[in-house]
């Protein structure tokens, strides 16, 4: 993906824990929908709240890092452990100004089966 791609810019902002860069990538009305596969999922609205939630993701999985991927034809990020296991997939929806308007995060193990199918340590 190109460096000016919103997913690449989001990755750079998250990796550098750069509040200003993250704010420039997120739309002021950004919305994050979390599908955890249980009642712990939910929705967060607003640039600042979405930013806090995104910065918190890697702390729940300190052995994982983000990588730019395509998610159902959309730009996105995958949160992958060093073992190769994907523990989260983030799909992005863009506003006309190329800021990220909506983000869908799936951490439900059943929905990540496709992402983990080709891991060598899984039979």
TrEMBL record:
InterPro entries: ECF_Sigma-70_Domain (IPR052704), NTF2-like_dom_sf (IPR032710). It comes from the Bacteria. One of its GO terms (molecular function) is sigma factor activity. Gene3D superfamilies: 3.10.450.50. PANTHER family: ECF RNA POLYMERASE SIGMA FACTOR SIGI-RELATED, SIGMA 19 FACTOR. This is RNA polymerase sigma-70 factor (ECF subfamily). It comes from Agromyces ramosus.
């Amino acid at each position: 993906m190109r460096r000016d791609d919103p997913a690449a810019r989001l990755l750079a902002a998250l990796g550098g824990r750069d509040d200003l860069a993250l704010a420039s990538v997120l739309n002021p009305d950004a919305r994050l929908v979390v599908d955890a596969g249980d009642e712990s999922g939910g929705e967060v609205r607003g640039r600042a709240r979405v930013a806090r939630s995104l910065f918190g993701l890697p702390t729940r999985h300190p052995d994982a890092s983000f990588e730019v991927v395509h998610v159902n034809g959309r730009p996105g990020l995958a949160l992958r452990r060093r073992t190769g296991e994907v523990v989260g997939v983030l799909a992005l929806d863009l506003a006309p100004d190329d800021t990220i308007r909506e983000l869908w995060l799936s951490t439900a193990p059943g929905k990540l089966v496709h992402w983990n199918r080709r891991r060598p340590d899984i039979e």
